[in-house]
């Protein structure tokens, strides 16, 4: 198409992201009185707001709407709120004003004044003609001590110009009465235009299509908005940089008028109504009248970090191109479009657009994703859904072969392989035709100049760089797609399931996408108030055809508790929430670590170092033990060993059960499995306590261990059996509700413990080998938090800790700072308390909600241990330094115990892997 006709994505992004701001801003900015009737509004209005009940409208904004409640923290919006309250106070205290405001409707119109200024006019209907004098007197009384009023006559009508000494809250304004109409504006020029129009008899009622639209508008809504596409883009262009103005103004060709009913809900603003295209094909909106709406599916492919997308969904793509050509003909642009296609087809012996329509499956999307770094360029995508992956690859490869022949290059020079990991790769193709898609489907798709492409599933994906395609492919493999983003899902579920035109913007993520097009003043205002704006995270427009009527929805959604989580290396989607701590396990083939995890549906996953799920298996029960890696066959190939309530499992790296596994337990387990290799000879011993009060011992083959002589405990054992090697002796240690057992390998009592105490339910026994040479012992706590040191010689020492602890406390005994003396670590409900070896307080921390999973310690070096705590209810994880300070960057998002390790790609950084409340497994990079 010719350059003068730019129907591009930029106007859509800017309008969607800023329309709600301008609606609020222009509705309440600098006005001293409401306004009416329709015949006084100049026909060049960019948009008109019709308020059906001012008092109710103000109440909806100021008391029931989270959007407005958030915005009043911004100085400019706080001033607007004061002005609205001022009007509302007049409504309650001044009978003359109340009568006017109770005589709906109240109109506000916006008009482009000069090149870069928008003027507003308020118009309302007076209930009685004699009210005009009373209202003029009321305004005079209000400003008698704060300003002056001058009156001049224009075309037989008095215009009253109010000049205030302090303009900060209301500002200077003018007003006039014409018969039973009151007009208020901050521009006398607008009042003069309105007076001339009233005298001439011209009005919006004579504008084609407007009267029909006005009659269709909703009556029992907070407000109605009427948008004039002929004028609105010109007015809106004052917000953008000079180089983008022509693109915004090109939107005048989209439609004639649109009407939107405004519904202010507690956490959103929903606007729905109609777009009325002209009767001829002189608007782009008209081409959708022959298309049935379709479901948007591009979100299944796009990355979750997508900031903006525009999808065209069609039922008949050939008819769309036919109508699009008719639109271009009406705009005198068809010859330029045909010449461009003719050149393309002649150069490569092609037949466009038919060659693409043959493979296209009626959906075309333009999307933008912020760069991975703050200084990185925005990544742009065009996604074409195709009927067949094989057909699309064949057709596009054939086109590349023709291009290669014309350019005398081998076909292979246009193709490269992207190897995601050792087992998965994608082909990336270079299509050396600038603006290829825009030449066929129009300048809407002109943001992408160079074209690299990839075929993934049923999508032909174009982008400007191979790196962008790699990023999209990686996100898709991890299932980290827009469809699974909580904010987007919530947004999409609020709209109709089918669309012809679907625009989505994430206002916070989209800053990098649209900021380069906005004026410096708007950009500064946005960034200054980012904390407030980011909570209005999602905005978008939907248009769909029904019975040759174009219905429209516009939605702005407030997200409570919005957060900007830290950058992850990758995020891998599980079917539901992770059920326990993700575990690093070694891939014996590559030597790199992978991740093993189970979710709440009892699915177990093996996930590789790039986050790709290698396999998934559904078990009948949840895992209740640690996950052990064993070399069952003694051939350096590793298997995973763990238990559930009724079975012991051993799974190889390919997800297959080892022979004889799973092993059925003789009684349901009362705690998890323990696995010991006494002599490091891979002759593993498996121990598990069961509800029948027996401790069962198995060989690695799953057979009952011969020679195990232990009888039964006095009550159930609820923590796994421990093995400690002290000197040349082995000790098996466990406890029931009151008694501690210390046995040898055969199950005979090695140390007889005569002291009984009520053991804390959440804590096991810990080995304590002091560096000062004193006797080793095991350490645990009772239900009150008293610490017991149980020596292997049978001696017992107790330590009473400062404060009191509930039976729900967690306990650990670790040397956090490497000084050779262990610290007492307690977490009880919301409180973390760490004590020195002499019981003096080292540090404390208070969480907002109770801690329900056991804290863990992580060793970063010989003298540096850190303490990890999970507050699952808040989906937050904490990592504390050994002095009690939070580690840099924490807390992070997560709701499971987390593993810190390394995937083998960098020894200078660690990977932290944790489950999160959005069903993803997060891999953070920790320095």
Written overview of the protein:
- The protein is an alpha+beta fold and 927 residues long.
- Helix content is 22%, strand content 32%.
- The chain has a 20-stranded antiparallel sheet, sandwiched between helices. A 4-stranded antiparallel sheet has the order 21-51-50-49, with no helix packed on it. A 4-stranded antiparallel sheet has the order 22-23-24-25, with no helix packed on it.
- Helix 1 (9-28) crosses helix 10, helix 2 (54-62) runs antiparallel to helix 4 and helix 4 (75-93) crosses helix 5.
- The longest helix has 20 residues, at 9-28.
The helix content, as a percent range, equals: 10-25%
Helix-and-strand structural type:
alpha+beta
Low-confidence stretches: 1-36
Quick one: how many beta strands? 51
Ends distance: 51 Å
**What count of helical segments does DSSP give?**
20
Largest sheet composition: 20 strands, antiparallel
Seen as an oligomer or otherwise, the chain set is single chain
Instruction: Report the sheet-strand fraction.
Output: 25-35%
Radius of gyration, rounded? Answer: 36 Å
Overall 3D shape = globular
Mean pLDDT: 86
């Amino acid at each position: 198409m010719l350059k003068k006709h730019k129907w591009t994505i930029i106007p859509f992004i800017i309008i969607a992201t800023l329309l709600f701001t301008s609606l609020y801003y222009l509705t309440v900015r600098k006005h001293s009185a409401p306004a009416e009737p329709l015949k006084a509004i100049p026909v060049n209005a960019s948009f008109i707001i019709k308020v059906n009940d001012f008092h109710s409208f103000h109440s909806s904004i100021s008391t029931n709407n989270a959007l407005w409640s958030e915005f009043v923290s911004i100085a400019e919006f706080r001033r607007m709120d004061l002005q609205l309250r001022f009007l509302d106070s007049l409504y309650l205290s001044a009978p003359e004003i109340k009568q006017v405001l109770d005589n709906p409707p109240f109109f506000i119109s916006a008009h482009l004044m000069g090149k870069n200024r928008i003027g507003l006019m308020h118009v309302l209907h007076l209930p009685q003609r004699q009210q005009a004098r009373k209202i003029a007197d009321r305004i005079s009384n209000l400003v008698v001590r704060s300003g002056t009023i001058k009156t001049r006559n224009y075309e037989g009508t008095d215009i009253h110009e109010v000049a205030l000494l302090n303009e900060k809250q209301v500002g200077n304004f003018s007003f006039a009465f014409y018969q039973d109409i009151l007009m208020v504006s901050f521009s006398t020029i607008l009042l003069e235009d309105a007076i001339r129009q009233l005298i001439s008899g011209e009005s919006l009622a004579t504008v084609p299509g407007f009267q029909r639209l006005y009659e269709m508008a909703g009556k029992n809504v907070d407000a109605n908005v009427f948008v004039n596409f002929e004028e609105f883009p010109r007015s809106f262009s004052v917000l953008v940089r000079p180089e983008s103005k022509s693109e915004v103004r090109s939107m005048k060709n989209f439609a004639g008028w649109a009407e939107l009913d405004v519904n202010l809900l507690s956490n959103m603003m929903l606007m729905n109504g109609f777009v009325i295209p002209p009767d001829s094909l002189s608007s782009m909106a008209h081409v959708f009248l022959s298309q049935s709406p379709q479901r948007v599916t591009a979100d299944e492919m796009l990355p979750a970090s997508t900031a903006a997308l525009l999808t065209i969904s069609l039922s008949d793509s050939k008819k769309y191109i036919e109508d699009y050509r008719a639109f271009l003909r009406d705009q005198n642009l068809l010859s330029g479009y045909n010449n461009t296609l003719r050149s393309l087809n002649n150069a490569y012996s092609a037949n466009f657009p038919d060659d693409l329509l043959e493979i296209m499956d009626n959906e075309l999307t333009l999307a933008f994703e912020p760069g991975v770094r703050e200084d990185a360029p925005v990544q742009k995508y065009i996604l074409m859904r195709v009927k067949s992956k094989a057909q699309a690859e064949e057709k596009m490869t054939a086109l590349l072969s023709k291009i290669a022949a014309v350019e005398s290059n081998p076909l292979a020079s246009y193709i490269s392989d992207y190897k995601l990991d050792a087992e998965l790769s994608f082909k990336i193709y270079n299509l050396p035709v600038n603006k290829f898609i825009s030449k066929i489907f129009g300048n809407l798709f002109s943001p992408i100049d160079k074209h690299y492409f990839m075929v993934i599933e049923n999508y032909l994906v174009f982008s400007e760089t191979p790196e962008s395609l790699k990023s999209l492919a990686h996100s898709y493999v991890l299932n980290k797609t827009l469809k699974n983003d909580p904010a987007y899902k919530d947004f999409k579920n609020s709209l109709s399931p089918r669309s012809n035109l679907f625009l989505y913007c994430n206002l916070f993520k989209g800053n990098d996408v649209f900021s380069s097009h906005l004026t410096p003043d708007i950009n500064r205002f946005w960034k200054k108030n980012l904390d407030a704006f980011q909570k209005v995270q999602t905005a978008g427009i939907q248009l769909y055809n029904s019975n040759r009527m174009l219905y429209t929805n516009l939605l702005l959604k407030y997200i409570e508790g919005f957060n900007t989580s830290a950058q992850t290396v990758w995020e891998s989607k599980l079917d539901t929430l992770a059920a326990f701590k993700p575990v690093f396990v070694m891939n014996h083939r590559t030597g790199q670590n992978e991740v093993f995890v189970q979710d709440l549906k009892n699915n177990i996953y093996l996930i590789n170092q790039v986050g790709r799920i290698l396999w998934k298996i559904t078990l009948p029960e949840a895992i209740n033990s640690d996950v052990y890696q064993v070399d069952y066959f003694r051939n350096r190939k590793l298997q995973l060993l763990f238990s559930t309530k009724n079975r012991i499992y051993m799974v190889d790296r390919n997800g297959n059960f080892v022979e004889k596994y799973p092993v059925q337990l003789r009684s349901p387990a009362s705690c998890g499995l323990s696995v010991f290799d006494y002599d490091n000879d891979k002759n593993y011993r498996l121990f598990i306590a069961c509800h029948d009060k027996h401790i069962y011992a198995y060989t690695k083959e799953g057979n009952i261990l011969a020679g195990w002589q232990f009888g039964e405990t006095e009550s159930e054992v609820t923590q796994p059996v421990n093995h400690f090697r002290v000197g040349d002796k082995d000790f098996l240690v466990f406890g029931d509700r009151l008694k501690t057992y210390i046995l040898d390998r055969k199950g005979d009592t090695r140390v007889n413990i005569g002291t009984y105490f009520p053991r804390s339910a959440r804590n096991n026994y810990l080995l304590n080998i002091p560096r000062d040479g004193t006797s080793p012992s095991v350490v645990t706590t009772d239900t009150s938090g008293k610490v017991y040191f149980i020596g292997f010689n049978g001696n017992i020492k107790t330590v009473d800790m400062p404060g009191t602890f509930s039976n729900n406390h967690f306990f650990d005994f670790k040397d956090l700072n490497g000084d050779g003396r262990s610290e007492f670590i307690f977490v009880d409900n919301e409180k973390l308390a760490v004590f020195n070896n002499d019981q003096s307080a080292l540090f404390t921390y208070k969480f907002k909600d109770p801690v329900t999973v056991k804290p863990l310690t992580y060793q970063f070096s010989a003298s540096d241990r850190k303490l990890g705590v999970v507050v699952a209810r808040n989906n937050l994880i904490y990592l504390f330094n050994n002095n009690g300070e939070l580690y840099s960057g924490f807390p992070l998002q997560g709701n499971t115990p987390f593993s810190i390790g390394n995937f083998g790609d960098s020894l200078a950084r660690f990977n932290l892997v944790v489950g999160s409340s959005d069903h993803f497994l997060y891999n953070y990079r920790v320095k």
